[in-house]
UniProtKB/TrEMBL annotation:
Keywords for the protein's UniProt record, in alphabetical order: Signal
Sequence segments annotated as region (Disordered): 171-193
Keyword Signal part of the UniProt annotation: yes
Protein name: Uncharacterized protein
Signal peptide segment: 1-20
Domain of life: Eukaryota
Amino acid sequence: MKVLLVRLFELIVIFPFCQADDPDFSVHAMLQSAVGQDLPADCVNESVGTQWYGGFQAAVDTMMQRTKRTMQLGLTSMAKGVLLLTDETAACGDKPELHPLRDQAERLKVLASTRSLAGLDSTVRYEPLKALSVGGIDVHSELNALLVAWRMNHGPEVVGKTLARFLADFSEDAEDSSPEPPPEAPVLETQHRPGALQRTPSFWASLLNSAFRRLKDDSSPVSVACVAEGTAQLNADKFDEAFGRMMQKTQRSMQHGLKILALAVDSLLSILQEHVMCQQPLRSAAGAARLRAAASRLETLVGTRSLINPGTNVKYEAKQMLKVGEKDVHLELNKLITAWIKDQSAEDVGQGLAEFFEDFQEEEEEEDVSSQFGGQVADLSDMLSDAVSAAGGCSGASPSSCFEDPALKAFAAEVEHGIGHMLKKRRKTMQQGLKELSDAVEKVFAAASPTCQQCTGTSIIRQGARKVRHLTRKMVVDYGTYIKYEALKSLEVGGVAVHGQLNSFLGAWKLRGVREAGTPLGILFQRFSTITGHDEF
């Protein structure tokens, strides 16, 4: 069988029968085959299908260059393609049957894009025509079958089935065929309990701001008022539990402790971002976004198992070596634990925390959130021009010349952050996301040139933004009166139904690109402008 698989790879390399654009290839049928269930016909529209098809072909072509780096890039692109079809903003992203596929693709993306800081190693191990493993998971035969199905035009059903078999290797609940490990011992005494200072709001505010500074964010967005006493005490206990597990000095306890630490950091930032005193500054804090993304990647890495080793991404030898996803973090973790158990200052603990989590930033991650859109300022300007035209037009200056580049980049980052809240699909986070979106819209149009502010479309959009800003700042007790939301079904703001208009904007922004989101944005805020009353003064 191994010889046959190698020969199949050789066939792919020798014969240049790369699949050409096939108008008969049904991405919808492929997705149905991958999930093993019927899906509504509108799950994959023509635009998304074309984008997935081109991206998948490019991913295959990249992998067929047969180097470790191109294999890594191709696998990452393949995972992003699956997320394009199954993301929560996709037409059928709410379908439960798509959730496993989406989770598997997210794990593949994290594992395939993880590299050491020197770029010398990664979780992808590849020998051309011989072996391929990702995060310790042997996927050589499964990927080989998928590539053969694609390049030999076996059809969407076969491609879907082989894609599902490949992604199944990245399931969280993969069966562990190794003997059941013995139960973990209780956390050993570490001669340390959180001190009085470590349980105070001021300690955690200083800790986080110090961590953010290390991550190149000097904004100090966390004030003492942001952190409740209960939150400070809970996180002190969580950190102590995490480090106590690690100091048991077994691979399994190290893995468990790392997971507790990652979850604690993610949970803390999530709680603070919901606090009324922290919402505004944390929304645009690049350091918070970086730290939370790194915590999420660490959680994925320590939670991914191969079939024979539940801790495959954590390699640990007591007092000698610790690698997570092939990143050597032994010294950084030692520095963090020492700062904590020696009751060093909050600034020292924060520095240690940031240095440790720096190793888990995505390799391709930009310097800050707004820089993701640095090369798209022209698209952003055109997008807002389309929004003005859709909302009411402009008889004066060209709307495309209204906006400065810094304002556009800030706008894009703030919209992205607001959308992140909306996609959590809870009433409170929908309110927060709408507030952030309306803030971003009002801010960018307020910074437009005076001539452009005279446009009818601009006035209507700003009127809609001000109404939403006013409504989303209502007291919590008024929330159900002014904003009515039922996930995936309906959304009313100030008595005006906007579910369809908001979905159109989200789908354009997340799936088709910012350039396509202008008209839906203009229509959405024109709709907001029809809300009766609730004007800001």
